[in-house]
Design brief:
Blueprint: H1 3-8, E1 11-15, H2 20-31, E2 35-40, E3 54-57, H3 68-71, E4 76-79, H4 92-115, E5 120-124, H5 149-167, E6 171-176, E7 179-181, H6 187-197, E8 211-215, H7 216-228, E9 235-238, E10 244-245, H8 247-258, H9 269-278, H10 282-289, H11 297-303, H12 311-325
Parallel strand pairs: 1-2, 1-4, 2-3, 4-5, 5-6, 6-9, 7-8
Antiparallel strand pairs: 8-10
Bound molecules: NADP nicotinamide-adenine-dinucleotide phosphate.
Length: 336
């Protein structure tokens, strides 16, 4: 993997290089021999980039972004920059922002990339384009069913990218991951680790759900493979860890990696759903309570991809990072 890049030192542009996925991808791409250019929105993000990345300033991404300098001499683009999913933010204004940044921003980048002679553009989309889950795993053949503004904006971005790809020589690759975890993880996953560490009793003991997740290292391997593999051109792939994990299993594993006993107690799911609805947190509850999983046969069969790291290895790396950085903000080191 990446052998040709090692020989040619081709230029790779990573948008959103200062983010959770971007920093890790930049580091691994450099190791694989790519000449990496990464977009940042502000100069204050430059010190966060791995040494060796050429930073390029890009203002807020949208329908009018000037990509000419960033794309100059670039062979391949990985488009990560996006307005990330934010629960509680499905107002009309927020919807417009998702469309402006994630949809129109991707369309503009794809058109400019095609004009600049870029060979391939990989878009990191989301499993939420398929929907919010159900009783069986999603495949790429399932009809799209994006339910909220973030997912709609990503689905629209996918359509426009495919359409531009059909009209131009630009090859598209679309990956749809579920929740990604690993060192540097933020938002809900980080909150869950903190809740477990703080020994907050969690009422999920009787849940029997099935959720796919993806360790950052496995995602980076999939992206690097898709950049080089000729079979990936024009394709859309669901990508996830081997293991399907229930919420109580995830909590038990986090607790075990933290060296503590989980504070899980049983509560009927119907009661949890009702409580979440009353508290206005239905969306977050769905994520913890429901099933959302992916069948990853297609990327395995067509590209020979398989996750290098198990869920347990990925989680250990994540908790080691959490303990080493004191991400709880209160202490450093594993709790006794
Ligand atoms: N993390 C997950 O669980 C997950 C799951 C599925 C899909 N994805 C997708 O993976 C991609 C990367 O996610 P991530 O977790 O790395 O997100 P992240 O940590 O929030 O990073 C997002 C990056 O995009 C940049 N960005 C955000 N809004 C921008 C704008 N309006 N204009 C220009 N740059 C902007 C950010 O720049 P600043 O540093 O300046 O804010 C940052 O570099 C996203 O497209 C996301 O939708 C993530």
């Amino acid at each position: 993997m990446g052998l040709q890049a090692v020989v040619t030192g081709e230029r790779l542009l990573i948008t959103g290089c200062s983010g959770f996925v971007g920093k890790s991808l930049a580091k691994r791409s450099l190791e694989a021999g790519w000449a990496v250019r990464g977009t940042v929105r502000s100069a204050s993000s430059v010190p966060d980039l791995p040494a060796g990345v050429e930073p390029v300033a890009i203002s807020d991404i949208g329908p009018g972004t000037d990509w000419s300098y960033a794309l100059d001499g670039v062979a391949v683009v990985v488009h990560l920059a996006a307005r990330a999913h934010q629960p509680h933010n499905s107002s009309r204004g927020a919807h417009g922002e998702y469309l402006r940044i994630n949809t129109a921003g991707t369309a503009r980048l794809a058109r400019c990339a095609a004009d600049a002679g870029v060979r391939r553009l990989l878009l990191l989309s989301t499993i939420k384009v398929n929907g919010e889950g159900g009783a069986r795993p999603y495949t790429e053949k399932d009809p799209e069913d994006p339910r909220e503004p973030y997912a709609v904006s990503k689905a629209e971005a996918e359509h426009i990218l495919r359409e531009i790809s059909c009209r131009t020589g630009l090859e598209s690759v679309i990956l749809r991951p579920p929740l990604v975890y690993g060192p540097g993880v933020k938002a809900n996953f980080l909150r869950l680790i903190r809740l477990v560490e703080e020994r907050i009793p969690l009422p999920f003991g009787s849940l029997v759900n099935q959720r796919s997740m993806l360790f950052l290292g496995n995602l980076i391997n999939a992206i690097l493979l898709c950049l080089k593999n000729p079979n990936a051109g024009g394709k859309t792939y669901l990508v996830a860890d081997n293991e399907i994990v229930s919420t109580p299993h995830l909590i038990r594993e986090i607790a075990s990696q933290l060296g503590m006993k989980p504070k899980l107690y049983p509560c009927p799911p119907a009661v949890l759903i009702m409580a979440a609805r009353i508290a206005g947190r239905r969306e977050e509850a769905d994520r913890l309570l429901g099933s959302l999983w992916a069948d990853t046969s297609k990327i395995r069969q067509e590209l020979g991809w398989k996750p290098e790291y198990s869920f347990r290895q990925g989680l250990k790396t994540t908790i080691d990072w959490y303990c080493a950085t004191g991400s709880a903000g209160t202490r450093v080191g594993k709790p006794k």
